[in-house]
Amino acid sequence: MKPLTITSRLEVYESIDEIPKDVQDLMQEATEVRENAYAPYSSFKVGAAILLENGEIVVGSNQENASYPSGLCAERTAVYSAGAKYPNSRILKIAITAKSLRHKVISPVPPCGACRQALVEYEVKQEEPIELYFMGETGKVVKAESIKDLLPLVFDNSCL
Ligand code: THU
Predict the structure, then answer these.
(1) Chain-wide mean pLDDT for the chain?
(2) Whether the Cβ atoms of residue 62 and residue 38 lie closer than 8 Å to each other
(3) Active-site residues (predicted)?
């Protein structure tokens, strides 16, 4: 038996005021598109904004469905939109913010496992990490330098 130790390094910022200005702007885009979430079942609204190498920003919000599994998270809405619109432009950064209509979300909300898997596909494709920032409605912002920091032991095309 050989132990395998996995480490991830994340950065925690006390507030949005501490993150770089371009990411503050990206988070602002995520905050605006968060309002477009269609979340009548969970009342949980998530916004995601993606900065591409070509300078374009592509956004997404969660879209729910009466058939619950048919809905889609904000991050996948955004990343699939980016892939559909700008298939050849690398993804540099993604900013994510969540709010609830039921309580104030003051802790950072990380992307769900399925979204981590969807996002890492593009890191593998572009052979460059994607910076990820996530927060609640207010409060701390967490930064990961790569999706892989949130998804070690990644399942990717090398496994097939
Ligand atoms: N949601 C996202 O949009 N992103 C995540 O990473 C976590 C969850 C959405 C899905 C659903 O519409 C609502 O939040 C509650 O789970």
Answers:
(1) 98
(2) yes
(3) 75 (proton donor)
